[in-house]
Design goal:
The protein has about 250 residues and is of the alpha/beta class. The chain is built from seven helices and eight strands. The chain has one domain: HUPs (Rossmann fold), CATH 3.40.50.620. Helix 2 crosses helix 6 and helix 4 packs antiparallel against helix 5.
Length: about 250
């Protein structure tokens, strides 16, 4: 098992979660898409602070298997997962201007879709929230290699208790605690997001290779955790302004 200082991975994650609960008290949430890491965070948090809100992004493009795992987890923990949806006017304006599957047209268009369906809805929901917990690990890809456990440069503060975990730690905890798994893992998926933007991986590919696999010239991040490169950011900002103008006043 991975050790973090003198602590095991599980002990370190529990300490991180307890510290976050103590510091942020009633202004803390779990944000998850119910991949293995997110389910581990949920399990740890429900044991420590069962009234913590559990939030997921219902983008309008999720696979039906994601709703299956949500139902299983709601029954297991006796919770109601809060589903955050995109603004209907923004989504309609985006689709009207660029088409339903605009993400295939280029990195800026893909980032626009992520902004409308994920980034902006989450930002609205977390306004006034002090911090949120995620299942990000440094080993998932090179773009996440320097993820901090407490990222205080983010607003709200992003807390990643599993940042130092290895895949073996994830598998061990899942097995030892008999945690349910997203059904798409059994079909070869290792990173799960929106249905049209996620596929099973090939042998030898990294964990997130199944995300936006048609892209070859950009870091594969949706914008929830990392800023895009400068060029794409400027382009997506222009596209975003156009969408907001078409959507009208909030």
């Amino acid at each position: 098992m991975t050790e973090v200082g003198a602590l095991t991975a599980v002990e370190s994650a529990r300490d991180t979660i307890n510290a976050a609960i103590a510091e942020f008290r009633g202004s803390l949430a779990v944000v998850t898409s119910f991949q293995r890491e997110g389910v581990i965070i949920l399990d740890l948090v429900m044991k420590a602070a069962p009234r913590t809100p559990v939030i997921t992004l219902d983008t309008g493009r999720l696979p039906h298997e994601t709703f299956e795992i949500i139902g299983v987890l709601e029954a297991r923990y006796g919770i109601a997962v809060e589903r955050i949806e995109p603004d209907p006017a923004e989504a309609s304006a985006m689709v009207g201007a660029h088409g339903l599957d605009l993400f295939r047209d280029g990195v800026p268009q893909r980032m626009l879709c992520c902004n409308v369906r994920k980034v902006r809805p989450l930002a609205r929901r977390l306004a006034g929230t002090a911090a949120y917990l995620t299942g990000i690990r440094r080993g998932q890809n090179t773009e996440r290699a320097d993820v901090e456990i407490f990222d205080r440069t983010a607003t709200p503060v992003r807390v990643s208790p599993l940042a130092a975990w290895a895949p073996e730690d994830v598998a061990r905890y899942t097995l030892n605690h008999n945690l349910p798994e997203h059904p798409l893992y059994a079909k070869g998926y290792t990173s799960i997001g929106c249905e049209p933007c996620t596929r099973a991986i090939e042998a030898g590919e990294d964990e997130r290779a199944g995300r936006w696999w048609w892209e070859t010239d950009a870091a594969k991040e949706c914008g929830l955790h990392f800023s895009p490169d400068g060029r794409a950011e400027r382009t997506v900002d222009v596209l975003m302004r156009d969408v907001l103008q078409k959507a009208g006043p909030a």
